[in-house]
Amino acid sequence: MAELDKIQRSLLEQVADIHEVPQGAYSLRINGQLFGKNSSEHIKIEKKSDKPGIDIYIEAGTKNESVHIPVLLSQTGLRELVYNDFHIGEGADITIVAGCGIHNSGSQESEHSGIHAFYVGKNARVKYIEKHYGDGDGNGKNIMNPTTVVNIEEGGYMEMETAQIKGVDSTNRTTTARLADRATLIIHEKIMTHGTQFAETHFEVDLDGVDCGTHVVSRSVAKDDSKQLYCSNVRGNNRCSGHTECDAIIMDNASVSAIPEISANHVDASLIHEAAIGKIAGEQLIKLMTLGLTEKEAEEEIINGFLK
Amino acid sequence: MLELKNISYSVDANTHILKDISLTVDERFVAITGPNGSGKSTLAKVIAGIIKPTSGKIYFDGVDITDYSITERAKAGISFAFQQPVRFKGITVKDLISIAAGSKISVSEACTYLSEVGLCAKEYINREVNASLSGGELKRIEIAMINARGTKLSVFDEPEAGIDLWSFNNIISVFESMYNRTNGSIIIISHQERILNIADKIVVIADGRIADIGAKNKILPELLDVKAGCRFTNGGEN
Is residue A175 domain-shared with residue A273, that is, in the same domain? Predict the structure, then answer.
């Protein structure tokens, strides 16, 4: 297999915290092509034949294994749409690390749109980590539109950590989920926008099963002239519990809108929403300055803590 | 060590909070007391650089620090414990103590600072300094941070407010060990007789002016004599 170049290694480190081609089960997609993939004993990765993307099959009962499926774009002007489907067998307990890094040094737009569908089997547990990162020295825009579709069967559990911290000019992130009896979905989203970036995020969760539950937590920081829109709708269609929280720090000339919706369609649905948008409290800055930090350092400390 | 010369602070032409305060601090413990609204907290904020005085000069070890920012004063060796500690989202007790100490510290070092203020380090070290902590817990963490800084001058704005009696007794030993470590000066704004009792010097502020100043042995009996209880036990929150 070919070697990764320096830019590709750096992107890989940003989105997957790894420096080289990963061990175990993985699929690495670079510049619109499958660069390499590897199946393991219990995890099969197969290229789709009808459209771009892969199917990942995790055997029932697979424990403590992980799958890495990073996507890197280092060629300017590339646009792609990829379908990745995860089939997680009954009782499995696994970690999936996905993410997309774009390095755009040209003047054309680079765009990656991924549609990830998760079929979480009965009593399976999944931790899904997704990072989006962009950089580049050109003036071409980095665009990412991740879509995540989640189906969790009886007693299944999925925890999703999604982060977009730097360099993505425009993003429209959509997550939809459907939960069966006693299923649980936890989502932690972190977003930081700067410059003239725009980030839009939508969460739709249908709590269909008895005693299923979700926590959707979004924390974001909007700097400079960036704009953010947060929309969520949690529908309680059975005896269930749902909690959504969006908390944003606004700075400079940024703008942030939060449109939360909770809908109870069952008398035993218990739903909560919390939302807050505000600038960094002056007293927080002052406190850290009395500990010897400059105003700028204090601001960074507060933001880092907030997005930790 | 610290010298305030003719410090005045006015909010507008008719509202004068501090009026011509001159004061030197060289002693181990200096207590500032006085009725609510007399300007004690404002004076502490002037020392920390949070409030700029309208007129007057501040010297620290002979250097004019009147125009120093909050950060510059902190770096010069001044610490300030807030009367109402600040809450953060995501920042942990360990983060704050590390920032205060000026370096990444080990769990056992942080443990020392926390246990001195009566908190079990293991339970608190990774807690976020957010609304889940009670006022009393935050107050102790505030004191632990000042202890971790270990600067020449530490200013405490009503450290006892909101702390229960058990830890109140401990506060005094915390101040004593802090002095042993820093060999500096500690200014404590307080209404509490027991805190005034450990002071070497007591400054009484009333209506923005120094009403009385002198050694504890001279001032404390006068204060207790004038109106026992009133100045000390009204639990003032300003």
Answer: yes
DSSP-assigned states of every residue in A95-119: EEEEEEEEE--SSS-EEEEEEEEEE
| A308 domain residue, yes or no | no
Interface of A with B in 190-219 (CB under 8 A): 219
Question: Do residues A291 and A301 lie in contact, with contact meaning Cβ atoms separated by under 8 Å?
Answer: no
Q: Which helix (H) or strand (E) holds B195?
A: helix B193-196
The candidate with the shortest Cα–Cα distance to B184, out of B79, B71, B43, is B79
Q: How big is the A-B interface in CB pairs under 8 Å?
A: 58
Q: What is the pLDDT of residues A212-253, one digit of tens each?
A: 999 999 999 999 999 999 999 999 999 999 999 999 999 999
Q: To the nearest whole percent, how much of chain B has pLDDT over 70?
A: 92
User: Distance from A304 to chain B by nearest Cα, in Å?
Assistant: 8
- Look at chain A and report how many structural domains it folds into: 2
pLDDT in tens, B72-112: 999 999 999 999 999 999 999 999 999 999 877 788 888 88
**Distance between CA A306 and CA B95 in Å, rounded?**
12
Q: Which domain, by its residues, includes A139?
A: 1-167
Based on the domain organization, do A174 and A27 belong to the same domain?
no
Q: What does the alpha-carbon distance between residue A161 and residue A188 come to, in Å, rounded to a whole number?
A: 5
Prediction ipTM score? 0.92
From the list B86, B101, B69, B192, the residue with the least C-alpha distance to B139 is B86
Of A100-114, A202-216, A278-292, minimum mean pLDDT range? A100-114
Q: Compare CB distances from B74 to A247, A289, A304 and report the shortest one's residue.
A: A289
From the list A257, A258, A205, A282, the residue with the least C-alpha distance to A236 is A205
Closest-CA distance, B231 to chain A, in angstroms, reads 29
Place of tokens 């890197």: A72
Is A216 in the same domain as A259?
yes
Q: Which of A148, A167, A186 is the last residue of a domain?
A: A167
Confidence grade of residue B238 (pLDDT, cut at 50, 70, 90): very low
Q: How far is the alpha carbon of A156 from chain B, nearest alpha carbon, in Å?
A: 29
Question: Do B99 and A301 make contact, defined as CB atoms within 8 angstroms?
Answer: yes
Yes or no, beta carbons of B86 and A305 under 8 Å apart:
no
